[in-house]
Amino acid sequence: MSDSQEFENEYVDLGATTQNAMDIAETSMDIVRQFTPDETLADRIRQKSVHSMGDIEFQHLIEFTGGDAVGDDEDAPVRAGARAVLEDADIITDITMVKAGVTGRGHDCEVSKAIGHGKELAEETGMTRTAAAMLELDKADAFDGSIVTIGNAPTAALALADCIEQGTRPAVVVANPVGFVKAEESRGRIREVSEAYGVPAITHVGRRGGSGLAAALTNELIHVATDVRTDELDLEIDAETRAADGRNR
After folding, report:
1. Is residue 119 within a helix (H) or strand (E), and if so which, with residue range?
2. pLDDT by residue (tens digit) across 113-165?
3. What is the distance between the alpha carbons of residues 234 and 219, in angstroms, rounded to a whole number?
4. 62-65 and 201-204 strand pairing
5. d(CA 155, CA 179)
6. Closest Cα to residue 39, out of 67, 85, 73?
7. Are 157 and 98 in contact (CB under 8 A)?
8. What is the Cα–Cα distance from 89 to 35, expressed in whole angstroms?
9. Helices 76-86 & 41-53 angle (0-180, nearest 10)
10. Do 93 and 149 touch, CB atoms closer than 8 A?
11. What is the residue-wise DSSP string for 82-94?
12. What pLDDT band is residue 16 in, cutting at 50, 70 and 90?
């Protein structure tokens, strides 16, 4: 593998495009790993949450729910998300800001945003534009097998939870809407349907979060997929085995 290919594979998730940027990204993640576990795929998500939020304690707020063919351990949503990336699944975000934060490198997934769909439904019902957009896309079966990332709109997460209850099955949900109104409740609803119907989901507790966090966690799914593609990582191992064998990277 050439130096440029190695650079592309390793730093696709952090957006580094120059040697100086690569050095900064590498140093930053080395510091994060001093304060976070580094044994499982879920730990990689925790690390990315710390890096994104600039808060060491945020790692304790991340929640993993749902399962996959390997099991229902905490790595399941990461495995499911990485598989979806490897299968070129669609990545659908709630708003433009989240879409802009998802890296364009390291994958061939189509990245799109929900906002802009369902305008007539929003006008007719008075519901939020993001909730209407989610319902409109669900009518077209857009979410089945897709990576659905919500970083801003709690009503989008609530609408998606209703869709899952009615049979929609995303490959994985990354839901980190931020705020004081319905944000924590919406993430709780995602966890509820995730556990009830086995849909893999990555969420967090508390009022913080946001578009940057949601995009960063989605980028880590892409980074995990990149490591699988380059034979640096075996995806078909549960978290307990991975931690015992030291196979995170």
Report:
1. helix 119-125
2. 999 898 889 988 888 999 999 999 999 999 999 999 999 999 999 999 999 99
3. 18
4. antiparallel
5. 11
6. 73
7. no
8. 33
9. 90
10. yes
11. HHHHHTT--EEES
12. low
Question: Which of 79, 74, 81 lies closest to 37, judged by CA?
Answer: 74
Rounded CA-CA distance 151/142 in Å is 18
Q: Which of 160, 162, 141 is nearest to 214 (CA)?
A: 160
Name residue 203's beta-bridge partners: 63
Q: Are 190 and 161 contacting, i.e. CB atoms less than 8 angstroms apart? A: yes
Residue 33 above 90 pLDDT? no
One-letter amino acid of 185: E
Nearest to 108 by CA among 78, 86, 141, 93: 86
Q: How far is CA 190 from its chain centroid?
A: 13
Which amino acid is located at 73 in the chain?
D
d(CA 73, CA 141): 28
User: Residue for token digits 């109104």?
Assistant: 181
| Nearest by Cα to 152 from 186, 176, 133 | 176
CA distances from 49 to 39, 44, 63, 151 (A): 16, 9, 11, 13
Residue appearing with tokens 């190695």? 6
Residue 241: phi and psi, rounded to 5, are -65, -40
Q: Bridge partners of 41?
A: none
Identify the residue whose tokens are 């749902």: 66
